[in-house]
Design brief:
This protein is α/β, with parallel strands linked by helices and about 300 residues long. α1 links the parallel β1 (about 1-10) and β2 (about 35-40). The chain has an eight-stranded mixed beta sheet, sandwiched between helices. The protein starts with a strand and ends with a strand. It has helices spanning about 15-30, 50-60, 75-85, 105-110, 130-145, 165-170, 180-185, 210-225, 225-255, 265-295; strands at about 1-10, 35-40, 65-70, 90, 115-125, 160-165, 190-195, 305. Helices cover about 50% and strands about 15% of the residues. It folds into two domains: about 1-205 and about 300-305, Spore Coat Polysaccharide Biosynthesis Protein SpsA, Chain A, CATH 3.90.550; about 225-295.
Length: about 300
């Protein structure tokens, strides 16, 4: 029998872990030729998630858990699960049931057909807000245009199956700012996608707010491209050229009409504009320097406090 490892990061998912285990167990009850394990990674939850996981692991031998010493984030949690998985294939998915376990048989079928990576292409149900849809689409469009990876629209979900050989390659990465969606695309291998409609969250609230989404976007862009640095340089050349042309035009105008152009408001606005532009460029450079600073320290992506296997 082949073994499938299911990796589920959990942050304040006390109301969902038992239900997602039940759903996954139902799915594998119809897959007679496969054994499975569920590796829950408790990412510093503040609710009763850890207690629920310990209770589940005592009742069901397929339930494993990893407890972090603190909250390290979603991507390190997924990485920790993959680092400790021993299946012939590893499926990563969220623990709020927005990633439907019913899709697992299709993913396994594609894997058996010879695909090394089976990713999912998410579409949102009608009740999801217009803002959520548009910001998600905009993120992947910007990421694809500014980076060296090409993520399919809606294909950036962390709901995917990876062959054990691909997982082994992933384990060898020592990057500080993890962006697993981009790494999966960047690695290559034989890949295919499956469409699915994201379900509603069963319990609790999503921890992803605007600030975290923006941070995640910057991480994805800067992890796979230096194009923002080139854009900063191009902007510098562009506005330097415009300023020279503007000054030449000003001199010609002053000589032609024998007058001067005055106005403190326009002067202050110009100073503020170019000052802001300089701060943006310095900020872009600072982001890359910060990533280098964090990387050279070689701190681990996560610290495991406790696990039951």
């Amino acid at each position: 029998m082949k073994k499938i490892s299911i990796v589920i990061p959990a942050y304040n998912e006390g109301g969902n872990v038992a239900l997602v285990h039940e759903k996954i167990k139902e799915v594998f009850s119809g897959l007679k030729n496969y054994d499975f394990e569920i590796i829950f990674v408790n990412d510093g939850s503040r609710d009763d998630t850890q207690q629920k996981l310990e209770d589940l692991s005592k009742q069901f031998e397929e339930v494993k858990f990893i407890e972090f010493s603190r909250n390290f984030g979603h991507q390190p949690a997924v990485k920790a699960g993959m680092d400790n998985a021993h299946g012939n294939a590893v499926i990563s998915m969220d623990g709020d049931l927005q990633h439907p376990p019913e899709l697992i048989p299709q993913m396994i079928k594609k894997w058996e057909e010879g695909y090394d990576v089976v990713f999912t292409i998410r579409t949102y149900p009608k009740q999801i807000s217009w803002f959520k849809r548009k910001t998600s689409d905009f993120f992947y469009k910007i990421l694809s245009s500014l980076s060296d990876v090409n993520l399919t629209k809606g294909g950036g979900s962390d709901f995917r199956l990876m062959d054990a050989n691909v997982v082994q390659v992933m384990r060898d990465f020592k990057e500080d700012d993890l962006f697993l969606r981009g790494l999966t695309s960047w690695m290559g291998f034989k890949q295919t996608g499956i469409d699915f409609v994201a379900a509603e969250r069963m319990a609790g609230q999503s921890s992803y707010n605007i600030r975290k989404m923006l941070t995640f976007a910057f991480t994805g862009i800067t992890a796979f491209s230096v194009k923002p640095l080139y854009i900063a340089a191009y902007l510098g050349f562009l506005f330097s050229g415009l300023s020279v042309l503007g000054y030449v035009g000003y001199v010609i105008y002053a000589f032609a009409v024998h007058t001067e152009i005055s106005g403190w408001a326009s002067l202050i606005m110009t100073i503020v504009f170019f000052g802001g532009l300089q701060l943006i460029i310095m900020g872009i450079i600072g982001i890359y320097l910060g990533k280098i600073f964090k990387q050279v320290k070689e701190r681990p992506n996560y610290i495991i406090k406790n696990k039951n296997f």
